[in-house]
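Hey everyone, long-time lurker, first post.

I ran two proteins through the pipeline my lab uses and got sequence/structure pairs for each. Pasting them in order. The first:
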Amino acid sequence: MSFGLVPTWQELTRRVVNESFGSAYDDAGFEDLVKATRWSLDALLQGAANNLTLTGKPDEAFGELLESELYSDLLTQADAGGLKECLSDALNNPRWLRKEEILQLTDFFEKSHGGSTLVNLSRSLAEAKEAKKGPQAIINFNADTLLFALLDLFLIRAHAAKVGKWEHPSFAFVRTLRGIDGLPAGATPIFHCHGAVSPSPSGRLTKAKRRDAREHLVFTEADYLNIAGNVATWAQSLFLFHAQSSRLLIVGHSLSDPNIRKWLAWSLRSSLEEMAAVSTASEFTARHIWVARRPKETDQRRIQEISLLHLGVRVCWVDDWGQIGDVFDNLLALKSAP
């Protein structure tokens, strides 16, 4: 979802491995390492975490390394416009910022990343919420806190333009980092079910504390194995509830995660059993939609489409991630036909 603003999964792994082991893999060299080992990226991240422990680093060192590598590019871009401190604070709590800072930061994202999935999705979600057609919940598997920050920034700015004065509206979206956080009243929860990492606050506000859940991060092989071997994790319970009781629009996810595929398959099986009890229909329409970039090869498209049927997922192909706003507008009927 945050493609173009933070490193890809493989690029982040390359940087973390280099920093942990003192190696100097470039893109091609790291690709060769992945192919030579035939290991998953979470296994290589586990190796980086193991090495930090073996070399006497404190327990929090791995989380701090992830934080640094996750946000370094975006913070450097923001720093060029004098917005590094604003961005660091906004990723913890957008409401720490002053009016001028919110205006400058939203302009920065529109100018520098206006064509990205994240900005287009944030804009569409904000419009949907204003039209009272927003989602019941957002399940976010990303470690970054960009989605909540952008949504709140856009909504604060839109509210001020609407009422003609600068004031913060009630929260339309609330970041939910742990199962014990509960459900917000009147706001859409953004569940970070794989944990979250925020950058350290700028220090401009003496009482400002970092707001994340790095203790629940699912990055390493041990993290994934823990979820796979546990039938009562928050992530699994949360995902299964929404997959069985509502329709999912899956954006910015490769659908390669075996845990998520397993949960989707379980959900479909349960739904089919329930439908069989009340209906004699022999066919069904997949209820969940996966938004993905259209492959160039027709055969690849067909293979992917058919290979998701047992998960209860159909595909919405887009030629460019800038089209995600149009997808939302169409699904939620946000704009009238000409």
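...and the second, right after it:
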Amino acid sequence: MFLERAGQLQPLGQISVADGQSPEEPYLYGITNSHAIYTPTVPRGITRIDLVTQEISEVIQFHDDEDFHLAANIPGTNILCGIREKDGSSFIDGYDLCMHYWCNPVERNAITICSDFNNTVSLEMAGDKLLTYCSISYPVYTRLNMPPIHTPEIPLPDGLKPESLSRYPGVIADAHMLLSANNGDGTFSPVVIDIAKEKMHCYDPIKAEALIPFRIMEPSPENPNSLQCKGGYIVSRANGGDTQFCLWDTTAGNLKEPFATYPNAVRSAAMYYSKDGQTRKLYVQFAGYREGDFIETYDFQTKEWRMFMFYVPFAEILLAR
């Protein structure tokens, strides 16, 4: 920006300008935060990866006293929302990938973030043993996404500590929220909220290095030409063996048989599907070795794994547009 004065241009500063349009196709974003294995050698921040060219570009680098985790995106907003920490405070915030700035921070006592392809909610305590949730969909707070008139109050199962739910983001699928509880003893428990009944169930612990909720899009049994959202869990190195990718049976309350396996542990995963539904892939960041992790894709049509990228330092990956 320049100010013209007496026929001369005086520089005032710089602003970030864009057309405000979300890209047609998503990018893969990597979050390097306090959970990343390879920090402090790698700066914390947000990185963009082009799905076609695999070109990497830095979006933002966090300050020393800053952290950002449990990130989610509502397709079309081009905003990453999650829990941001700065100067000793924790709050919900969103980073605008188009205009490159943090937008609309809101101080809420969030435990974790849970999302589907249309909405993102913050799970919070509503009392000593009561949990509630509130929509935090960006870009702006309106009457449509402020806390509803009826605020759900969901009793916590006996013995479940709220902070145990804060390691991984949850997913919303099939009218349920799928969460993961870190029991702190080398086991994780699936925790499922029935949204309609406002009830939370904590299931038997599973010995694993991680239990990561994920969601996929799959053809509907009633109409193969339409897609439906299903949720499940990645059981990382279950009982010291292979990592298992399992959908969750909301009726029976258990894991289905794995549709895929892999020998390495998993850090994070993100689902991609094309508008016509012909391409459906799961991007998975696997634990690597001293040089860093790597990302592979699982193709739901061919049921094959394919290498996507080597040497990544991220703690979380997600697709956003």
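Reply from user beta_strand_b:
Welcome! Quick read of the second one: Confidence is low (pLDDT under 50) at residues 139-147. The radius of gyration is 20 Å.
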